[in-house]
Design a protein that fits this description.
Blueprint: H1 2-12, H2 14-22, E1 29-30, H3 40-43, E2 47-50, E3 54-61, H4 68-82, E4 87-94, E5 107-110, E6 113-116, E7 118-121, H5 148-160, H6 165-179, H7 185-191, H8 194-197, H9 201-240, H10 245-252, H11 256-267
Parallel strand pairs: 3-4, 4-7
Antiparallel strand pairs: 1-2, 2-3, 5-6
Length: about 270
């Protein structure tokens, strides 16, 4: 979920992201990872934005990952194969505070091969910078603060000043989800208005995912229930035919206790 939220922010507020990471509001467009022939399993969590001269490759990581340095080199080479003329900026952004040394690794070495990239640990970033651009507001609560609850309150006030309701709604939903890394849900609900978030595409996506998950689970439960009922019917027939409980259990995968219960019901 956190990967998807960060990807949504990067793709819909690319100017704000560029201002933060590149130092200027460079106009960027989305570069489809499949164009670089990347592993589709990882491609969903990658963010590539491009201009005429530059490609910004951003990786948002919730927790440390020892594979990051090699992965950054791998992606850099893939980008070079496809766009050898373009500059590339690679940034790994860690969302959740960690004392692991992995969150400080920004190079990869293999023999004479050396590659470096930028690493940002959000909990070390100064808070005010995230209030300068609306697309960065969701990150503020994860920044360098001793009072994330107060920061979330300030973000909430800033969100209320956004005139475009859809933008306001999307950023509120993104803020709510990312804030879950440092605050409990009750605190977040108390500060952020749920009625605003319900109108966001993020909220709708979550609802759809929940409904789809519920449908799948319902179908799986239905299938399982059907299999169990069929096994019970077979067990009853085998009991009537004089098979032992051990034989029935081996054939139907029902427990001996369940078969004994069926046997008692059959005699009642």
């Amino acid at each position: 979920m956190f990967d998807n939220i960060c990807k949504f922010i990067a793709e819909n507020f690319s100017d704000d992201l560029a201002t933060w990471l590149l130092g200027s509001p460079l106009s960027l467009t989305v570069l489809d990872p499949t164009e670089l022939q990347l592993d589709p399993i990882r491609a969903d969590s990658l963010i590539f934005l491009q201009s005429e001269e530059l490609i910004l490759h951003t990786e948002f990581q919730t927790d440390p990952d020892a594979k990051i340095p090699f992965r950054m080199l791998d992606y850099r080479i893939r980008v070079y194969r496809r766009h050898p003329q373009k500059q590339v900026r690679q940034v790994v952004i860690y969302l959740r505070r960690s004392d692991s040394p992995l969150v400080r690794e920004n190079t990869f070495r293999l023999g004479e091969t050396f590659h470096s990239f930028q690493v940002i640990r959000l909990w070390e970033e100064n808070t005010p910078q995230f209030f300068h651009h609306p697309g960065l507001l969701p990150f503020a609560v994860l920044s360098n603060t001793d009072d994330p609850e107060q920061v979330l309150s300030l973000v909430s006030r800033s969100l209320e000043t956004i005139s475009q309701k859809q933008v306001q709604s999307n950023l509120a939903a993104a803020t709510s989800i990312l804030a879950g890394l440092v605050l409990n849900r009750e605190t977040i609900k108390k500060i952020l208005r749920s009625d605003i978030m319900r109108e966001s595409v993020i909220y709708q996506d979550i609802l759809e995912e929940g409904e789809e998950k519920g449908r799948r689970e319902g179908e799986e439960k239905g299938l399982q229930k059907g299999k169990e009922e069929k096994a019970r019917q077979i067990a009853l027939k085998m009991l009537s035919a004089g098979f032992s409980i051990t034989e029935i259990a081996r054939f139907t995968d029902l427990s001996p206790a369940t078969i004994e219960q069926l046997q008692r019901q059959q005699h009642n």
